[in-house]
Amino acid sequence: MQERSKRSGFSHSLLDRAAERRCDAAWLAAALDNGRYLLFDGDRPLFRSVGNPTADPVFPATDARRLDADTARAVFLGMENDTPVFAAPIPSTGEDEEPPDNLKAIDVRSIAIQGLVGPELLGPIAQAKSMLDWHARHGFCANCGAPTEMSDAGYRRHCAACGASHFPRTDPVVIMLAINGEDCLLARAPRFQPGMFSALAGFVEPGETIEEAVRREVREESGVVVDRVAYHSSQPWPFPSSLMIACYGRATTQELTLDRSEIEDGRWFSRTEVAEMLNHRHPDGVFPPPQMAIAHQLLTSFVAGETIF
Ligand SMILES: [Zn+2]
Description:
By secondary structure, this protein is α+β, with helices and mostly antiparallel strands. It is built from seven helices and 15 strands.
């Protein structure tokens, strides 16, 4: 059976990360000259042939050089068979300006929702976006304030002034479906598309287990008490560098006290209603997040009776 985590977007990669190559300077120098590149204009990957089923965001090194890609800031993503693949920024054109050569910069959320690339390329795009974003925001040492330098092909930043090493971060977020018998709890934030309801979610705090974070977030946002927690699956979420950890929580109370600072509306939905939502046939016109989102997969498993405590 396919691993549950593989059902969500950003969870497949055609690359072998080949971490053993990251500190091999001679190999890296040659690979940068001959490799292939995901090129980013700010936080948006560049594409050629947009609107075509073969929309392609992977460029040869010759194109990377022609577009002035900053290869000194290139991050090694991994190997596609025998070909090294990197991510590198090009000089930013800004939101209102188009990149050169009829190329198009497209935001990562749209790429995933519209399925502009195959699933096996979404993983490397997520990896690239999170890594380039981290480098763009960590030019100075958090320990002493001096400028830091990229090393290990992008997987470390080193501070020559104080000797500290800094590593790319991943922020764990719990996203959970509280379940009470045949019902599950869904809510919507003001920023959601009108009509969309999703699972509750929140950052795991320092010193907290995943189970504790699930119970705390559900309690804070809805007033519902959860006892048992079961892991469902995980999803890299490159906005900018989260790991979504999807769980079910067994609710022991039903009454809702919604946190109105975060939640616009929320209520219990029966399994039948969730099935209607997934088919876009709910009588109220409410619907779930898109298929690439892990919340969609939590709901699909709930309807299929996969919920296990
Ligand atoms: Zn330092």
